[in-house]
């Protein structure tokens, strides 16, 4: 992580959401600030490996980050969607949540074998969704070695889980506490 105190100051913290004891890091306030969002995208774009060909965003806030990076870098954007959103042939990955499971999917044929893809989302916490995204892209034939986030909650261990599967996570901002 780098020092991005100016961006961190634009992120609202909501205590006790979604349950008591949780400090929810709300990036929507950063997105509301045009210059802050521009700086976020510019700083993240500077981190993307030069041989990257696709930016993969996880629904829904990850789409916002991925669209900005795709535009800034002139790269294609791969959408990792929730179930029931893709009309064509698709593959998917189920993953565990704190209470139950979820699924993300992508259209088949959107990733060429060996194509370098960077995974992006607004925040990494426990890493479950990011790990599912990495698995899905790899199943489609893509190479994922890098993941970018606006925020990391390091105490929840998600970044370490990504490193364990050979992906280097980078976040602009780290917040201690849940």
UniProtKB/TrEMBL annotation:
Family, similarity comment: Belongs to the purine/pyrimidine phosphoribosyltransferase family.
Subcellular location: Cytoplasm
CDD domains reported for this sequence: PRTases_typeI
Source organism (scientific name): Sphingorhabdus pulchriflava
Catalytic activity: AMP + diphosphate = 5-phospho-alpha-D-ribose 1-diphosphate + adenine
Entry keywords, A to Z: Cytoplasm, Glycosyltransferase, Purine salvage, Transferase
Sequence ranges assigned to domain Phosphoribosyltransferase in this UniProt record: 39-142
Gene Ontology MF terms in the entry: adenine binding; adenine phosphoribosyltransferase activity; AMP binding
EC number of the protein: 2.4.2.7
GO cellular component, one term: cytoplasm
Enzyme class: transferase
Purpose of the protein: Catalyzes a salvage reaction resulting in the formation of AMP, that is energically less costly than de novo synthesis.
Protein name: Adenine phosphoribosyltransferase
Pfam family of the protein (one): Pribosyltran
Keyword DNA repair: no
SUBUNIT field: Homodimer.
Single GO biological process annotation from the record: AMP salvage
Pathway, per record: Purine metabolism; AMP biosynthesis via salvage pathway; AMP from adenine: step 1/1
